[in-house]
């Protein structure tokens, strides 16, 4: 990249931070929304998954948790969701909407304290009670919706779908806590399955924007003269299919039509990978394009395999195959957001190396081990633990690769 090109890139980045708050003595780790989140989220993923592996394999018992399965599913959906969404919104909205003031310093620290309090309250929900956990966690998601209100109220409605999906998740989360408190008759796990469907929709909406930024940034760095466009109709078809599967699974979980909807959702999500096939240039051999496409492959495979389980009469295997969606696509989506933001928004270029290869590859391996347990039931305890441990290694590698970036000012000297 020439000196002139570097100056132009720096100018574009500077335009994103014209409304950066004039707050003094802000430490680097509180200089932008994604920094403290990623510093805490990676170790949180590690601790949560190792504990879950130990509990589910029968090695450990947590006496203060009556329903460990509900804890695990809730934290993997809502605990991670609020952190990941906060990182995405607090980083992206100031770029998308001129005049949007970034959250930094003391305000950012207070929001992070709220997130931590939500995690602690749910871990000890059987000790401190449902209502405290409900207040703290609903407040966190409510704050995110308020923070994103400009996107929802935007006259052009360019990003309103993100806000509406978050509002739906807030309603679902309130429904979940109502069930936990005995005010709703719907089983908590059934509500969490609905929450997973809504979360997948949010991920599909977010990844459309992440793809646009990451792939075009990559092509610019590589000198590829083309433009990547994530086509909304393709994503919308995938979203509709996931929504249909989620609704029918909640209302008619044993209906064979759900099997065909699983195949439809799988095909719809896999169809998104067609966006990577450009008319004039070949980019599907680029590492980051492979990384990103694997998100949709794992999500699509999960829904298709759940459809297969229903139609083949192996309905007991749905929970195993669902891990292609959760451990696989869901986990890899968060990892890719952490990697892409970790490079670009610390003033660096997207870089693939042995660490990024391992981060992505090990999540895929862990997913395959977890999802295929029903075919090796005699080794299930060992495979549960092995899958959990392998899944945590990418987040350990993330800490090794990105901790110094997140703790230091941007490499290009720009605030944030």
Describe the 3D structure.
This protein has 416 residues and is mostly helical. It has one domain. 71% of the residues lie in helices and 0% in strands. The chain has helices spanning 3-16, 34-56, 68-96, 105-123, 125-128, 130-147, 149-153, 160-180, 188-222, 232-251, 257-270, 287-311, 318-321, 325-344, 354-371, 380-407. Helix 2 (34-56) packs antiparallel against helix 16. The protein is globular, with a radius of gyration of 21 Å. The two termini are 23 Å apart. Mean pLDDT is 88; it is low at 1-12. This is NnrS. Pfam families: NnrS. Keywords: Membrane, Transmembrane, Transmembrane helix.
Can you describe this structure in just a few lines?
By secondary structure, the protein is mainly alpha-helical.
Radius of gyration: 21 Å
Please tell me the total number of domains. 1
Q: How much of the polypeptide forms β-strand, as a percent range?
A: under 5%
Q: Percent of residues in helical segments?
A: over 70%
Tally of strands: 0
Q: Provide mean pLDDT, rounded.
A: 88
Using the alpha-carbon principal axes, give the shape: globular
Distance between the termini: 23 Å
Protein name: NnrS
Keywords: Membrane, Transmembrane, Transmembrane helix
Transmembrane segments: 37-56, 76-96, 131-148, 160-178, 190-207, 228-252, 258-278, 290-311, 323-344, 356-376, 382-399
InterPro entries: NnrS (IPR010266)
List keywords for this structure.
single chain, 416 residues, mainly alpha, disordered N terminus, transmembrane, transmembrane helix, NnrS, membrane
């Amino acid at each position: 990249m020439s000196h002139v090109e570097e100056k132009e890139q720096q100018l574009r980045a500077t335009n994103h931070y014209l409304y950066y708050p004039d707050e003094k003595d802000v430490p680097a780790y509180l200089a932008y929304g994604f920094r403290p989140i990623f510093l805490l989220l990676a170790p949180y993923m590690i601790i949560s998954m190792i504990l879950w592996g130990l509990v589910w394999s029968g090695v450990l018992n947590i006496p203060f948790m009556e329903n460990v399965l509900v804890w695990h599913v809730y934290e993997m959906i809502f605990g991670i969701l609020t952190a990941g969404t906060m990182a995405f919104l607090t980083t992206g909205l100031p770029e998308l909407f001129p005049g949007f003031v970034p959250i930094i310093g003391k305000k950012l620290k207070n929001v992070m304290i709220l997130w931590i309090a939500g995690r602690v309250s749910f871990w000890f929900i059987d000790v401190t009670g449902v209502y405290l956990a409900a207040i703290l966690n609903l407040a966190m998601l409510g704050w995110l919706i308020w923070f994103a209100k400009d996107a929802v109220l935007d006259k052009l409605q360019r990003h309103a779908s993100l806000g509406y999906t978050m509002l739906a998740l807030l309603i679902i989360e309130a429904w979940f806590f109502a069930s936990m408190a005995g005010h709703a008759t719907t089983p908590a796990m059934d509500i969490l399955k609905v929450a997973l469907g809504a979360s997948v929709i949010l991920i599909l909406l977010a990844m459309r924007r992440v793809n646009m930024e990451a792939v075009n940034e990559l092509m610019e760095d590589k000198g590829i003269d083309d433009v990547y466009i994530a086509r909304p109709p393709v994503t919308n078809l995938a979203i509709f299919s996931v929504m249909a599967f989620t609704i029918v699974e909640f209302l008619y979980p044993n209906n064979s039509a759900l099997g065909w909807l699983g195949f439809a959702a799988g095909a719809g999500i896999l169809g998104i990978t067609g966006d990577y096939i450009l008319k004039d240039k070949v980019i599907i051999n680029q590492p980051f394009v492979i990384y990103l496409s694997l998100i949709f492959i794992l999500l699509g495979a999960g829904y298709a395999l759940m459809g297969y389980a229903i139609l083949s009469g192996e309905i007991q295997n749905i929970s195993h195959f669902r891990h292609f969606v959760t451990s696989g696509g869901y986990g890899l989506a968060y990892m890719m957001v952490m990697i892409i933001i970790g490079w670009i928004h610390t003033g660096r270029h997207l870089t693939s190396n042995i660490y990024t290869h391992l981060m992505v590859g090990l999540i895929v391996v862990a997913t395959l081990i977890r999802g295929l347990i029903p075919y090796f039931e005699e080794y299930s305890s060992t495979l549960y633990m092995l899958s959990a441990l392998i899944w945590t290694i990418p987040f350990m590698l993330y800490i090794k690769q990105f901790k110094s970036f997140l703790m230091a000012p941007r490499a290009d000297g720009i605030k944030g």
